[in-house]
């Protein structure tokens, strides 16, 4: 069948739009339009992440439609549906939790809009509904926290009692930071997690839950492992209000390596922060342009990050970008 006749026949079926829609390209001169469904503004990390994405979109000359879900998955789902209705070229999603995305990601796929996951991953039946995950290896971050603790306490003996402030229940980083931390410690039975509870990645909840831990366990606590620095910083206030010295009476381990953690380490109130890089904007813009142009992408674009103990905090602080 001649191409023209085939196109006419196809148009009659209403599929023409799908078949005929050209993939986006810089050369075409059309501004790339991205819909970004962010979790909220729960932590210093998240604020730095949002700033990085907005700055990178501006620098690239892309239009960014931004939605702050205030830590509610239903708001993220609504935002994705709105982006689909607006026919954006690409959707970036920072999924609050790992599950509950199957239906809306299928809708994005049906609309031929690629979805890029950033800062957290999802668990869905059809993995072809998302294109790539731009973010950290959270299990490795948990392992690094435990490895620091083992090194820091290697010349001690007896039981080491740990309390754990978990991130948002059901979120990828909370699940995997716990997994990595426990994986390393299971070979060292004197290290015991005696209390573990979510404080939702926020300072306020970190203080609140740590107050409860201190009331229940008091001076028995030797270590705090917080899945992010914001909860650790909130917990430090609770430790001081209980008349104890953070980083001395209770070792304080956080994750993210945000500015607040460096300030706490320099003040002698925190022992270490495992870095989780929020400055994903440039990588996300590169991935968005490629996805919109129909180019192949790796399934995981992994962040490069380190570990910052208090001993290096003062030297490193001037170099920090978030
Ligand atoms: C990590 C990110 C986590 C940070 C927290 O990629 O999803 O969410 O570690 C933030 O500070 O709230």
UniProtKB/TrEMBL annotation:
Signal is among the record's keywords: yes
Protein's recorded name: ABC transporter substrate-binding protein
Matching Gene3D superfamilies? 3.40.50.2300
What keywords is this UniProt entry annotated with?
Answer: Signal
One Pfam family per UniProt: Peripla_BP_4
GO CC entries: cell envelope
UniProt similarity note: Belongs to the bacterial solute-binding protein 2 family.
The signal sequence is 1-25
Instruction: Spell out the subcellular localization from the entry.
Output: Cell envelope
Recorded hits in InterPro entries, A to Z, give:
Peripla_BP_I (IPR028082), SBP_2_dom (IPR025997)
Q: Name one GO molecular function term.
A: carbohydrate binding
Q: Which residues form the Periplasmic binding protein domain?
A: 34-295
**Where does this protein chiefly localize?**
other
Q: Is the keyword DNA-binding assigned to this protein?
A: no
